[in-house]
Every structure is written in structure tokens, then in C-alpha cells.
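Translate sequence into C-alpha cells.
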Amino acid sequence: MPVNVIDQSVPTRPATPSAAAIHDLPGGAAAGRSLAVLRILLGGILLWAFADKVFGLGFATPTAKGWLAGGSPTAGYLGSLKGSLAGAFQPLAGNPAVDAAFMLGLLLVGAALVLGVALRAAAVGGTALMFLMWLTALPIKTNPVMDEHIIYAAAMIALAATGAGRVWGFGRRWTERLAAAPTAMRAALT
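Result follows.
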């Protein structure tokens, strides 16, 4: 009868690449905490934009133009575009389906980042959202290619790749809960 022997001197790696990725970074725990701060701040930016557009808090969205007051979260911005792709995006301004998709994107990506869950899905959705917003800004006046949308997208990808939800977030519990899920779902939502 064969005996299974586990060599305790050989370090083992978790089944998913991102599960221990933060601790493998130079800086270890400090790097993990830094990425957690970045994750929470970036999620906060998206959730703030969501709240301001829903309630018309008077910052980027006047109270009378809040979504709950009957305003459109996309009409003001998309309707006033002047860039090279304005003709493609202006007809979408004020469309209820576009409004709902935009607001749902802000809410889901922002919440996932703040909570540290579903970071792969958040990175995909957030990168798509940022790419579309980057396209609306073309041509960029201060830099021919780069603006904050590209930086935000790159940050979301880095956060997902490093498993940043495991520090100061629910990423570890989220991954444990998804252990019984089908492989494709588990891969997309971890």
C-alpha cells in the first residue's frame, strides 16, 4: 500500500495564482496594505460618482439634475462632447438604457473594489467603462494619449492580478465561498 508523504520543507502555492500574490510581492505585507488603500480609494471614486449622479449632491451633478430628480446621468456629459468621436457618443446621451448601464457599472465596480470581491470581473467591467470614457475624451488636450481613465484601468487590472481584495477586504472569504462554484464562474468572480 503506497504511503503519501508531504515534504514540509517545500513551500506550497495556492491553487489560484492571485491567492498569495500579494505576499509574493517585494515588500510583502506593506505592499498588500498599499494595494488595499489603492483599491479602496479607487472604489470610493466610483461610488462617489454614482452617489453624486443619483442624488444630485451638487458637486458634479446639480440637485435638480440628479437621477432621482428625473435627470439623466449621461445627458450633460455626452451631450456636450466636442472631441473627434462626439458624433458616435452624442446620440447615446439621455438614453435610459445607457443611463442604467453606466450607473450599474459605477455601482458594481465601485462596490467590488471597496469590498475586495470579484476583482477580476471588476477589472474587466471597470476597464471597459474607463476605455469608453477615454474614447469620449479624445483628443486629450494635455497629453496625446494618456489621461486618468487609462491610469484607473491599469490600476484595476493590477489590483485584480495581485489579489488585492485579500488585504482589508472580503477577498479571502469570497474565494472560499466560490470554491464549490463551476470553474468558469469561479475564475471570473475571484
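Note: The mean pLDDT is 88.
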